[in-house]
Amino acid sequence: MRLGPDGKPIAFQVEVNATAKESIDALNLIKGSWQKVGVDLQVKVEDRALLYTRKNANEHDAVVWGGGGGQLDAILDPRHYFPYSDESNFAQAWSVWFARPANPRVEPEEPPPAAKQQMDLYRQLEATGDTGRQYELMERLLRIAQEEFWCIGTTLPTNGYGIVKNTMKNVPRTMPGAWQYPTPGPTNPQQYFFER
Predict the structure, then answer these.
(1) Which class for 117: exposed (0-12), middle (13-18), buried (19 or more C-beta within 10 A)?
(2) N or C: which end of the chain has fewer CB within 10 A?
(3) How far apart are CA 63 and CA 53, in angstroms?
(4) 180: Cβ–Cβ under 8 A, 6 or more apart, which residues?
(5) pLDDT in tens, the chain (196 residues)
(6) pTM recorded for the entire structure
(7) Which domain holds residue 94?
(8) Kind and range of the H or E run holding 46
(9) Are 96 and 171 contained in the same domain?
(10) Same domain (yes/no): 55, 73
(11) For 66-82, b where at least 16 C-beta lie within 10 A, e where not — what string?
């Protein structure tokens, strides 16, 4: 057993949505790997509503949830990169400190300097209309996320596909599939047409 600084074995629960079969299977594989290095990971399969209730109250050790990624999502929804919102599952109390809601579900907790630096960078990003400057600030924020490793990504989804009839025109050959995109909206489906 690997011991923490307090001399106790390192053990924690990872909560996962009961309907997320792939995530449950992946967690069980990960659990075996972590056991080999002396870490006791306990998989807690539960209903999504209970998972969210516990996560929102900051009563969890860790959760598994799907995430976006890459440049397309990062600026619009940076939840996986710094304590941005209550969807930043790794840092509920820090995100409350950042957002300062009127009626927080969790007592705010001042985050460490790295997270505060990310918060400052994001506020600067929000304050400028200069796209180049936004990318520069986001790149700095992401470098901190890379160093701090708040969130562990395990897999990427496979490429999706769409079926388009040969007579349907003006449909892009490829398009991003992301939470904030929202596919196919930005590809202007109102301009798709059928060839007669």
Answers:
(1) middle
(2) C
(3) 12
(4) 68, 72, 73, 76, 77
(5) 999 999 999 999 999 999 999 999 999 999 999 999 999 999 999 999 999 999 999 999 999 988 766 555 788 889 999 999 989 999 999 999 999 887 788 899 999 999 999 999 999 999 999 999 999 999 999 999 999 999 888 877 778 888 999 999 999 999 887 777 788 988 999 999 999 8
(6) 0.80
(7) 68-157
(8) strand 40-46
(9) no
(10) no
(11) ebbeeeebbbebbbbbb
Does residue 151 share a domain with residue 73?
A: yes
Same domain for 82 and 127: yes
Cis omega (within 30 of 0) on the bond before 157? no
Same-domain status, 10 and 80: no
Residues in the chain: 196
Task: State residue 125 phi and psi, 5-degree precision.
Answer: -60, -45
Quick one: 168 and 118 in the same domain?
Answer: no
